[in-house]
Amino acid sequence: MTQEEDRRGESPEEAVTRGLCDIGRTADGLKQSFLTLDVRGFGLNTVTPVSKYQHLQRLKLARNRLTTLKGLGSLTNVVYVDASENELTDLLDTSPALHNVSEANFRLNSIREIKTPLVSYQCLKVLNLDQNGLTSLEGLGALAKLQVLTASGNNLESCGGLDSLSQLRVLDLSNNKIAGVAELSGLANLEILRLAQNVVESLTSADRLESLTVLDISDNRLRALEDFCSLSALHRLRDLRMEGNPCCLAMHSRLHVVKILTQLSVLDSAAVAAAEKIEAQNLHGADIDDLAAIRAEHFPSGELDDGGNAAPPVSAQLKAFEGILDAREYFGAFDERCREAVGEVMGEAGGSVTADELCQALMEASSSAMECCRALYLWTLEAVREPSGKDGSMDTAAPLFKDPRLESLGDFKGTWAERVSQLFVALARGCDLLAELIIGYGRSPDDASVTVEVPNHCWAAVCVEGRWCLLDCTWKSFCAPPFAFFMQHFPLQRRWQLLPELKTKDDFWEMPRYSADFALLGLEIDGPIQSSVSLEVGSVPYSFTLDVPRGLIVRTELCDEEGKEVFWRSGASTSFHNVVGVQEGMCKTRIYTSPPHAGDFLLLVFVTSQQEKEQGKDPQSALSVKVSCLDTSQDGGDLLTYPLPNATELFFSNLCSLASPLDEPMLAHRETDFACSVPGADRAWLESKGKEVCELEPSDSDAGFIGNFIPAEGGSLSLLAAFPGDVKPRELLVFYPLSLTAIMVTEVRRPEVEDVSEETEEASALRQTFGRVDKNGDGRVNKADLLLAMKRLPDLAKTLRMNKSAVREGDGSMQEFERAFERLDRDQSGDLDWKEFSAVLVQE
Asked: Domain ends where: 689, 704, 739?
């Protein structure tokens, strides 16, 4: 007779009596007390008979038919409860609470939510809620001393409700529907986190789990290996499981993670060996000295096959093909003939073709190795299907071919870009071409993505007649010159840059984002340009220079984060470009930008030809630079900075140039020197509100005009020119002079003047202060100078005996400033010399 059959017909009381065990003795050795009750699988549907055993400490009630635990409240000594595999719908509803319980197992019940307030269970340290159908963990936050929580196999879509569990050490939420880990960021003492078989798409905030040693994030939806970079901050992390995520299908995914998470000792249940760490470093293009140091550390006795003394070369003598700027023009009619030949082969095969048949057709259609390479490239472009998902070329699940029958050409694994490149390299080798697969970092011209730490792109190199050509079948770049190809591609193995001087990864990411056609348009870099710059509100504009072929029209825009072009309130421009020289058919064009307020912006540069413009074609993107503007003002006010002039198309197409004012804003009521170049103009002048302000005189320089005037406050100021044969003058530039109100809240940052040696330290400090206020260094300070300096030097207001530290319109501070200035200006000249300035400062 089995044990289950033997229990049939027993009453609950008999079953409980049978389950009593672990007889202990009290101190006097006389009175017996039962410490453990084990009635697992007895078929109980009530706990009433249990309550009379007051000394019970451990309750094993698993595999019964219990629907409630009410009635156990009198067992005040209980520290362990196993009520798994019952029919309970509530947690620890014992009425009253079992205050001393430290471990509880409620696995495989029907607890959908936490109903019972748990504030009384302050001793509970271990809790198992696996496979209950839970939809929320709200309510568990009251368990202040909880150290171990398992709630796998539920219906959780969020891990919220645990942020107050500061003592939690182990958390298992595997096999749920959780999409992120940000809600766990407050668990600073968490050591083990298991989130396998969820729908996690991001590891955002995981870097805050500073005590984590074990993380199981396998079988989730992490698409990019870049997500794991945040874990590099977790210095205690030793064991990571990531298998089963889409990103793991990428080539060398394990080595990439070994490279970025150097603290790991176990990855996907396999030990991370020292040799593997070296392989990862080597894959990522470690320099010779770095590799030698790694080998010396991990293999001091020369355990490698080469004895540990050989250092793999970082670069080889690779001869680069000079490149093709416009491949379509270079190959002419061959492209069309090639498509026809391949189309015939594919038609005859009914879409099903072997790799050998395809390679044979491509070689027969080509008369040279370069034409064969081109034919392979064109066929690959036609055959593959571009991914439609948000992951783009990093998509590991996107179909590779437009026609599924082509999958017989090979079983390729990895991201879409990796699979496309693998396909091309395999076919190139089938055509007897020497081809190599290259992995590295890519900067898509269509995507303003930020710097990444894990390789995110793949392309190919083919050797044609002893010279290597670089091509990208995903971003459609064929044999571009190495310098142009490098603008979007940084190979892990630096030798594949094919450049005379190898660049670093930092060099690559610090470049602006060039378009794919930057080099094709004939544009060239003139001086350093960064991918992103930071400015302060009140700083002078950021600028850089490009060489632009004569005949191309440049256009610039400064856009906000939503892609909308931004302007000043006055209507003044936030971007401007200026031809500063013409040499050998190239116009040196200086690009300026000045954000109107704090925030993140994108400076875009476009070019077009006059013919394309007349045809109504959109201008082509050339490059973009991220511009971050920070407000460092003390009062947090809405400060103005540096409005730029608005330019008409004629100003640029006619190669006009503005020489002054360009290094400082045009200020109302302040004498301004004006200089510009207007080729072909008979005369030029400045006009405001339909009235001439200043007639500009021809200068000694070619096509130059100069003048001197004092802008009036309010309104705009236009530069006009008259050309031979014109009936009406033409507008070139529009300026928006800053008023005194704007000057009050504008700071133009300039280099500090050098210290001037004086007899005393105090006098030297005063002289330095005067130098900082004297903006143009002429030894005199006017109202505009002083207003500008007060923004930089808040203590000046006190020096001037003003009650307010800032001058603003409408609060009386402007009138107070005027009176203070008149007090200082003893000779009523309209400005202050050193003697007037220092006399007041000395008094203070």
From this structure: 739
Contact yes or no for 488/482 (Cβ under 8 A): no
pLDDT at site 3: 47
How far is Cα 664 from Cα 655, in angstroms, rounded to an integer? 22
Question: Which amino acid belongs to residue 408?
Answer: S
C-alpha angle with apex 414: 411 to 420, nearest 5 degrees?
Answer: 70
Residues spanned by the domain of 783: 750-843
Token reading at 840: 């007041």
**Residue 123: CB atoms within 10 Å:** 16
Confidence at residue 804, expressed as pLDDT on a 0 to 100 scale: 57
Query: Which of 588, 622, 644 lies at the terminal end of a domain, its last residue?
Result: 644
How many other C-beta atoms lie within 10 A of the C-beta of residue 205?
15
How many domains in the chain?
A: 6
pLDDT of residue 461: 94
Residues of the chain with pLDDT under 50: 1-5, 22-32, 288-289, 305, 307-316, 448, 634-640, 744-758, 841-844
Residue 35 lies in a domain: yes
Strand-pairing partners, residue 722, are: 683
- Helix ranges, 120-180 (H): none
177 lies in some domain: yes
* pLDDT attached to residue 347: 62
CATH number of the domain to which 223 belongs:
3.80.10.10
What is residue 391's predicted lDDT score, i.e. its pLDDT?
Answer: 79
Q: Where does 653-751 show beta strands of DSSP type E?
A: 657-660, 672-677, 683-688, 691-698, 704-709, 717-722, 730-735
CA–CA distance, 828 with 836 (Å, rounded to integer): 11
Q: What is the pLDDT of residues 158-170, one digit of tens each?
A: 988 898 899 999 9
DSSP lists the bridge partners of residue 605 as 556, 623
Residue 733 and residue 781 in one domain: no
pLDDT at 794: 62
